[in-house]
Specification:
The chain is an alpha+beta fold. 27% of the residues lie in helices and 36% in strands. Helix 2 runs antiparallel to helix 3.
Length: 397
């Protein structure tokens, strides 16, 4: 038994040696493969890249301004009370057709009636006092002509009569003012139209239009036969619009409803956005048609088309680059390489830009800057290559 032990140990040692060498060989081959993959990046060698390209193709491009607004009546008047008070009766209802001077609601008249009654009594007293002062003045005047009283007595009688007469006029003016206030407790329609009531209830206390916050808005009377959209345009785009420009209006709540409109008013002064403090100019776009489903307050998207080009050479926006001097250029594919070429561009939409010169239909350009490009970029004063026959393609408004 002892004679067979040494050969067995030698066999086991041989097996372990072969297994170890196999593992080391596998690790060496794997390490070599990993090294080949990462070494180009570590030492700056450029790996082969795949550049996405696009070709110059004819397209229709429309340069537009899109804004969101709300529908409202072209002719409408807000309803606000001229005095403070409490609503005692709602005569008309929301959505009702009203005529000019038709009663809409009433405010409490109790206090005004009490003051007016007192004022009427004061008028009676003031008139009696004025009559008595006049009789006394007439008597003093007669005595003055006969030189039976002094100038002082006559002057006192004249002043007393003037004061009594003036007091009578003041009492009548106060009563007239109270009658005017009493009349203002009845809110009437300023003109014919549809009544658009706010959420009002009988017993609600309202403030007058003369108050600091402008008073309680009761509603409005609107002529719904003519509607418009009021929207806000930023100070950069508003200079590109003018009264009379056409617009397309999409009514957001009514899918599929699109109407045409005309710019009728551009505000001469700006308002400030409460969100980002940008300067905005209100613009009114009058709709040239109506729809029974339209309601004031509905949201609408207004599109102003500034320019439009049909069947014009175009490229994706991402393929056009520019330097610090606003020189625009693209990377044109030439075989396996790329060259930087200056181009002249026209109008653009959200995806494409018009090519006026420097490229021809079918030319292929890179959508990103190729890593293999090591040429010179366009400098100041560079002009587009090729002819400018594309300039006539397309029409502007």
């Amino acid at each position: 038994m002892s004679a067979s032990t040494p050969p067995s140990r030698s066999l086991n040692t041989f097996r372990r040696t072969v297994l170890t060498l196999g593992v080391l060989a596998a690790l060496g081959w794997g390490g070599h493969w990993v090294w080949k993959q990462i070494s180009p990046g570590l030492f700056g060698n450029k790996r082969e890249e795949k550049v996405t390209t696009a070709k110059v193709k004819p397209a229709t491009i429309a340069e537009e301004i899109v804004s969101v607004g709300r529908i409202r009546a072209v002719f409408s008047t807000e309803l606000r009370a001229e005095i403070n008070g409490r609503i005692t009766k709602l005569i008309a209802t929301d959505g009702q057709q009203v005529k000019k001077d038709q009663e809409i609601l009433k405010l409490d008249q109790t206090d005004w009636l009490t003051q007016l009654m007192e004022a009427d009594h004061n008028i009676i007293v003031a008139k009696l006092q004025a009559e008595r002062a006049q009789r006394d003045f007439d008597r003093q005047s007669d005595l003055k002509r006969r030189a039976l009283i002094t100038d002082k007595d006559f002057e006192e009688a004249r002043i007393s009569f003037a004061l009594a007469d003036n007091n009578s006029a003041i009492c009548e003016a106060r009563a007239a003012n109270l009658r005017d206030k009493l009349a203002k407790t009845i809110i009437t329609a300023p003109h014919g139209g549809t009544l658009l009531f706010k959420d009002l209830t009988e017993g609600q206390v309202i403030t007058s239009a003369a108050s600091q916050n402008g008073g309680t808005l009761l509603g409005e009377v609107a002529d719904l036969s003519a509607l418009m959209v009021r929207t806000n345009i930023n100070e950069i785009d508003v200079a590109r619009l003018k009264v009379g420009d056409a617009a397309h209006v999409r009514i957001d709540p009514l899918r599929g409803l699109t109407l045409n409109g005309i710019v009728r008013r551009i505000a001469t002064s700006a308002t400030e956005s409460q969100v980002d403090r940008t300067r905005l100019f209100p613009i009114d776009v009058v709709l040239d048609a109506s729809d029974a489903r339209l309601r004031p307050g509905m949201s609408a998207t207004v599109t102003f088309t500034l320019a439009r080009a049909e069947n014009t050479p175009a490229l994706p926006l991402t393929s056009v680059f520019s330097n610090a001097d606003s020189v625009r250029y693209v990377f044109v594919k030439k075989g396996e390489n790329y060259e930087a070429r200056v181009i002249e561009t026209g109008i653009a939409d959200t995806r494409r830009i018009q090519v006026l010169a420097g490229l021809e239909v079918g030319d292929e350009v890179a959508l990103t800057r190729p890593l293999t490009f090591d040429g010179e970029l366009p400098a100041v004063g560079s002009s587009p290559a090729g002819n400018s026959s594309n300039r006539s393609a397309g029409t502007s408004r």
